[in-house]
């Protein structure tokens, strides 16, 4: 296998998959949000502005919706500037919740732009502007999916108050 095109495969990759690279946008950048729909005609955008967003039918939930469990899912904006979905109630996702090496639990996934999940009759699509979606190296695609990407500097330590991207060398 050509390592420049596909990345070096290690024993860890075979069991957990590669750990995603990152962009270096400011913490919280990219207007993270959920596109929420319920057929036939309910549609709205819910901005993810809190460090913890809870989704459920309980009045204590951040996003209150009918016809789902009182506490159905949560989205945690963690100290790596990732949005981590944890499913509490039944629903589907477009990810294998048991594989992601960075997730916080078996029923969790780091959401990338376009990630989808359901809760009862509701469908959710996570969106974050591409320049800030940490799964996109260097703030977006560079030459297509199979092109070689140069190494990036470490991600800022958002937990220690760094809010700006490091300056290029």
What does the secondary structure layout of this molecule look like, with pairings?
Layout (H helix, E strand, L loop, with lengths): L2 H4 L4 H6 L16 E6 L3 E6 L4 E5 L6 E2 L8 E5 L5 E5 L20 E3 L5 E4 L2 E6 L42
Parallel strand pairs: 3-4
Antiparallel strand pairs: 1-2, 1-9, 3-5, 5-6, 6-7, 8-9
Question: Can you describe what's shown?
Answer:
The chain has 169 residues and is mostly beta strands. Helices cover 6% and strands 25% of the residues. It is built from 2 helices and 9 strands; from the N terminus they run ααβββββββββ. The strands form 2 sheets. Strands 4-3-5-6-7 form a 5-stranded mixed β-sheet, with no helix packed on it. A hairpin with a 2-residue loop joins β8 (116-119) and β9. Mean pLDDT is 76; it is low at 1-10.
Quick structural summary:
The chain is mainly β and 169 residues long. It is built from 2 helices and 9 strands.
**What percentage of amino acids are in beta strands?**
15-25%
Instruction: Extract low-pLDDT stretches.
Output: 1-10
Anisotropy-based shape? elongated
Summarize the biggest pleated sheet. 5 strands, mixed
Helix count from the secondary structure assignment = 2
**How many beta-strand elements?**
9
Mean pLDDT: 76
* Structural classification: mainly beta
C-alpha Rg, in Å? 17 Å
The strand line-up of the biggest sheet is 4-3-5-6-7
Distance between the termini: 31 Å
Helical content band: under 10%
Name the helix and strand elements from N-terminus to C-terminus, one letter apiece.
HHEEEEEEEEE
């Amino acid at each position: 296998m050509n390592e420049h095109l596909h990345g070096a495969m290690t024993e860890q990759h075979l069991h957990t998959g590669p750990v995603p690279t990152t962009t270096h946008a400011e913490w919280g950048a990219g207007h993270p949000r959920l596109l929420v729909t319920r057929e036939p005609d309910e549609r709205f955008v819910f901005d993810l502005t809190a460090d913890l967003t809870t989704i459920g039918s309980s009045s204590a939930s951040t996003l209150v919706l009918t016809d789902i469990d009182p506490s159905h899912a949560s989205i945690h904006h963690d100290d790596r500037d990732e949005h981590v979905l944890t499913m509490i109630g039944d629903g589907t996702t477009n990810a294998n919740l048991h594989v992601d090496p960075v997730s916080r639990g078996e029923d969790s996934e780091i959401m990338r732009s376009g990630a989808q999940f359901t809760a009862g009759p509701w469908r959710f699509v996570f969106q974050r502007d591409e320049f800030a979606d940490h799964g996109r190296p260097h703030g977006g695609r560079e030459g297509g999916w199979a092109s070689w990407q140069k190494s990036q500097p470490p991600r800022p330590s958002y937990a220690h108050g760094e809010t700006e991207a490091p300056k290029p060398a």
